[in-house]
Amino acid sequence: MKAKLISAFGLIAVVAALAISGAVWAQSDQDVAGKVTRLQGRAVAMQDALPRPLKVGDDVLVGDVISTGKEARLEMKMLDDAVMTLGEKTVFVVVEYLAGGARPNAAMRLLQGAFSAASGTMMQTADAKFSVSTETATIGVRGTTFWGGALDGDFEVALLDGKGVYVETKAGRVELTRVGDGTRISGADAVPTRPEKWAAEKVRRAVATVAFK
Asked: Is CATH 2.60.120.1440 correct for 8-208?
């Protein structure tokens, strides 16, 4: 399945849907999910249908629809020290980020592009949940560093370090527990492929999509 680009109308629709669902609201201390720690090129956060150009040190808010420009990279450190890195032409939504309490929960959505994630201290809590949903699959994190994005025509996920992740679609689920393994997801109704070791060259190409110059 070829990677699809989000149209301007599609992005507006996402923002509207978040606003209707109550995921987007005026900023308060409770709405801060993290901060921008590195930025290469340009990035914008959309909140309440208003664009907010991002720079290093800016807050990342719950409900932000973050988009990056050509050749851009954006790194953000979340409340629990998790690190999310976005590649160029990526559209990423921070749906929820509750780092404290008995049941911490982080929910994000990748609409377009590529990203890597290194989970933070919330994953030390037994009931914590950390997930990133995409058009084709949901990625669940168990204290790890992983990459996800379009590569070689399909959406793919690779475990770069740590305990592991699961990748789940409507049709099935696989577990990535060995560093260097990856899976390919050809569509929302397709079972993710059996985990297999990625060649070093493929890992390099994936990591390059989110690497700063």
From this structure: yes
Q: Please calculate the CA angle 134-25-15 and round it to the nearest 5 degrees.
A: 40
- Nearest-angstrom CA–CA distance, 83 and 75: 7
How many C-alpha atoms does 137 have within 13 Å on its Cβ side?
29
Backbone angles phi, psi at 201, to 5 degrees: -65, -35
The predicted pLDDT at position 8 comes to 40
Closest to 128 measured CA to CA, from 164, 95, 104, 102: 104
Q: pLDDT tens digits, residue range 18-77?
A: 443 444 344 555 599 999 999 999 999 999 889 999 999 999 999 999 999 999 999 999
d(CA 46, CA 27): 12
Tokens for 186, please give them: 């050809």
Can you give the pLDDT at residue 28? Answer: 52
Q: Where are the domains of the chain?
A: 8-208
Give the pairing of strands 129-133 and 105-112. Answer: parallel
